[in-house]
């Protein structure tokens, strides 16, 4: 029996529809069984005690790093932000797992084009920006990410992978698996699209790149087959 792909998705109550559309996009394109878990604050309240930081733009900014703990430090798991869609088979990403590394991600090297993003949140700029928005964790090698560590360490310590102690433990994934809308030009081969500044669920981003792709998965999310009405009896 094929192994299930274990996926954690950051859930934000300000972008509820984004979470569900992302899940639908993964389901539609996957050739493997899936285990998908939202990381929602009310679900992890017993282990996540951290106060919201003034520069925190999403509810899962720090709780994302609980994924290895929630996996019991076993096997591999994927984390991704909710403001995304997956346009190709997640098995392609899953098959890139490499036990030489503790974590794998897309190693972006860019400067954000804007100082703000959705809901007027500040677009923070720092080394390894957006590396942690899609991560594949080799969970047994991420035991430093205990709830206590995630609750107490600085944002930069977490998002810059300082908990690894060695950047050589960070493996590279192709950038098409975290394509940053607006920061990168349109790429028809983008496997995972990341609406970093805001997605088509916000009025001001209705016409952004890959908006129609997102709307397509939204229609699928809302789809339900209706029973055909019985034809009237002839008079």
UniProtKB/TrEMBL annotation:
InterPro entries: Glyco_trans_8, Nucleotide-diphossugar_trans
Short name of any one Pfam family annotated for the protein: Glyco_transf_8
GO molecular function: transferase activity
Keywords: Transferase
Superkingdom of the organism of origin: Bacteria
Gene3D superfamilies, A to Z: Spore Coat Polysaccharide Biosynthesis Protein SpsA, Chain A (3.90.550.10)
PANTHER family hit by this protein: EXPRESSED PROTEIN, PROTEIN CDI
Protein name: Glycosyl transferase family 8
Organism of this sequence: Pseudovibrio ascidiaceicola
